[in-house]
Design goal:
The chain is mainly alpha-helical and about 110 residues long. It has one domain. Helix content is about 60%, strand content about 5%. Helix 1 runs antiparallel to helix 2. It is elongated, with a radius of gyration of 25 Å. The mean pLDDT is about 85.
Length: about 110
């Protein structure tokens, strides 16, 4: 009978966090590109006029809603994610003192 496979908690947490960050990046990129394409570019069959160009504080509205707002949302998400969601895993014993001693002595074997 085979032994049950246990994943290291450090690997499990970092994998989960990487997946969440990757999916968030993909969603933000997809939204920014799609919004900009549909509202910011002249496409065949849809001619944009000056009436279509709405300004918010001197910036075209498609830039505000397509880039600035998502960037602010991503910044808030990053602050929350890094501050409250990322797990601070124990990395084990700190071998710094031993390594420094080995370096001063000329290495482990020599």
């Amino acid at each position: 009978m085979s032994q049950p496979h246990h994943t290291d908690p450090l690997l499990r947490n970092s994998r989960r966090e990487a997946i969440i960050i990757g999916l968030t990046w993909l969603a933000a990129t997809t939204y920014c590109c799609a919004y900009s394409y549909f509202f910011g570019y002249i496409r065949e069959g849809q001619q944009l006029t000056k009436a279509d160009l709405n300004m918010i504080f001197g910036v075209p509205s498609w830039v505000v809603w397509g880039y600035l707002v998502p960037w602010v949302v991503c910044a808030v998400f990053t602050f929350w994610f890094a501050g409250w969601y990322v797990v601070d895993d124990d990395l084990g014993y700190d071998h710094t003192a031993e390594l420094e001693s080995d370096i001063r002595e000329g290495g482990v074997g020599g």
